[in-house]
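Help wanted!
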Amino acid sequence: MDQFLTFGIVGLSTAAIYAVIGSGLVLTYTTTGVFNFAHGAAGMLSAFSYWQLTVGWGWPVPIALAVVLLLLAPAFGLLVERFILRPVQALGEAERLVMTVALLSGLIGVARWIWDPNVARPLPAFFDDRPPFHIGPAAVTWHQAITMAVAVAVAITLRLLLYRTRAGAEMRATVDDRALVGLTGADPVRANKAAWILGTQLAALGGILIAPTVTLDAAQLSLLIVSAYTAAVFGRLRSVPLTFIGAVVIGCTESYLTGYLPQNDYLPGLRLAAPALLLFIALLVFPHRRLRGRDRRLAPVPVPTARGTLVFAAATIAFGVVLASVLGEADLITYGPIFSLGIVALSYVPLTGYAGQISLCQLSMAGIGAVVWAHFGAHGQLWALGLAVLVAAVAGALIALPALRLSGVYLALGTAAFAVVLDRWIFTLPAFHVLGVEVALFDQGSVEVTGPSLFGLRLDSGEELMVLAAVCLALASVLVAALRRGRFGRRLIALRDSEAAYATLGGNLLFAKVLVFSLASGIAGLGGALYGMQQRAITPDQFNLIAGLPLFLVAVIGGLGAVGNGLFTGTALIGPTNALITLAPSLQNPVALLPALAGMGLGKNPDGIAAHFRHQWEPLGRDRIARTALLAWLATAWLLRLGDLIDGWTFLGGALVVAVALRTWASARQAPAAEPEIPVEWWGVRRDWRPEDEEVLARGVAAS
Amino acid sequence: MASLRVSGVTVSFGGNRALDGVGMTAEPGRITGLIGPNGAGKSTLFDVATGLRRPSSGRVHLDGRDVTRMRPSARAKCGLARTFQRLELFGRLSVHDNLLVAAELGPERPRAAGVVKEILDRLGLTGLADTAPDTLPTGVGRLVEVGRALALRPKVLLLDEPAAGQDAEETERFAALLRSLADDGTAVVLVEHDMSLVMSVCDDVYVLDLGKVIAVGPPEVIRNDETVLAAYLGDA
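Answered by r_m:
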């Protein structure tokens, strides 16, 4: 009983922190309509700042608290509102979600840049010099008591603020109808600012309170938020009291699992994954929602032509062959993922681009593919590649079942929870037996991965694996393009555009969603298997939620409707970043922020930049002379490289310069010649009279 | 051909009853009008009939078969199709593909392309086949939605303000289309604010007000019904 009480106190103390953070999340969501994935990261950054002020610089605790909670947190909240979310306020839910995911990824990068992750940073608890007091047999530390008192104070303050003040009424009204609130004299922007300031302060408070009890690690602290997310989901993202109840359920569950879960090799991960599992369950027990109608705006999904797709596929393979032949062995490992991760990114095109299903666990699916290949393809058996795709596809189908009940932010949360469960628990399991078959995953560490055998030929060198990955990306792109042109692609787009209309036409939502999740996961699984082969050895960390965020962000920026997005994302994610690090190793930390920064630029290119790139390079493809010149130059330079007369960097740099120059030349040649300005009185004299001239003149006369 | 019958349907939003024991029948070959002031519950009744909203009580029968617990997609397979008051076109597909999605889900799937061509011709939309529906005027968009519903070859067709945004000439052509659909044996239910259209094409008219049916009858009776006039014009 004593133990039960002790764990109960620990649980309630943790619950208090989750409640504080969760209520901040609910406050921001109810006011602004934005589910802030970076809420935990804001708390994490506050905890690090607090550590810096108190431990790092030796400031007194009250001053450090005041600076973090009253100065830094509100300023951060205001900056986020002004520069990150206001530009996308008018866009759809998905865009707003991407911005906060980008912020999460960026803040983790910033924290790792400023505070070296390899240095331990213990943070003392509040009043840790005072002995704990006792409630019955259970000892309560002052830190725990303060934490619980803070939660109670937060609950009372929020209640008073939201229901007894004009500012609170304004905040509650804003989410329902911003325009209408504006008409009543209230200011939705002011309400948003207030919500971001308060929400960030609550995140900061929670971050500071939780930091002494855990390791001060950027990713771990940011993901502790999963528990707070679960609490918020208990509150249906709207109710602060229910969020507090949810927090108590989660805090106590975690605590009692720590105390009472049997000790064996299989369950430690379950303790770590418990919040994510609870989140998954909480999302599933939501009441059914009505079928969704049309969104305000959706990114276009161009129809690729068969010829264009084949040209693109051939170019992808050629790119792979050229890269494989010019890069050294070390660079092949570095740049190999251009194609394998490109395949993983391509899985977003049918899933999110066509069907509108937001998934944050595609890299986890890749992990499943990689681990299946590692074990079953250890001797290069090609059928194991099919098995890797199949197992990932089945896992995808499992995700699709909750997807029938979830959409938008809830689906993103559900898939994020799935990624965390895989990473923290399933991937860390030791080998086990199912129906007499031994299932080994990452062997609680890393697994070696080898290449496949193709027609008796073992593909194991960096060059061979890069070409293989390029061929697979080309084939997967052709498959996705065929899907877009076909019946199933049309149905996916239809169900995304209006679930209600699709269902009332007789479309089966469950079937379509299961199929597209399976297909996308199978593609990701193939990418994962190839990625594993190129990396030679894989660990669960390579496939966790945080590692998958940059991939997701770059894919979104590329434009999820374009089939070329796989190659674009792979190249953009792997190419420039690693090239910059090679040229200037000191840039490693800022370079890690690039995907997040790109994600935050979404407001400027909501339809993606892959299509923009294509449009820019089209003149080169259309101009026969420029095209031939480029191919001739590439062939010559390639031969020079093969003959070791130039190095790989000269070849690639030269190719880029020549391609850009030829593109500029071709664009100039194709631009219509500017017509000399002819005064209106000379129309029909110095140039021919045109049918539209009459209307132009009539409009001019009417306007004068 | 099939008929639609809803009986005793009640739907509540919080404390408000959007529909209160509503009953309605639509017979094959007849055009049934459903009119009433804004907020009377007309679109909600369509939602209940098509399965997008579960009623708290009441039944929906399609061709004598109880479909109350069926999913929307299953009801569509039974021959029920609808349009929406707020356009629900597939904005990223062309007009042609909007119809093609429906035709491929309908009973004439093997000759879906032919069905689409025939409907585009019938509605005069052939010239717009490759157009993105979001760029069309509302009136034309509504016609595309009608075409998409027709591509299912429905036995019961629910049309929610299909003539809104059309000019007099287009409305006249649309009335002829409705008549020809009914002549083919389709049961048509028409929600419409254009009273002259309703009164000219409908065989029966149901009047809804505040979630209740306040009058049923042929147009000439409804036109002079005191209760209906009061609901539309007020009691003054």
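OP: Thanks! One thing I noticed: The longest strand of chain A covers residues 133-135.
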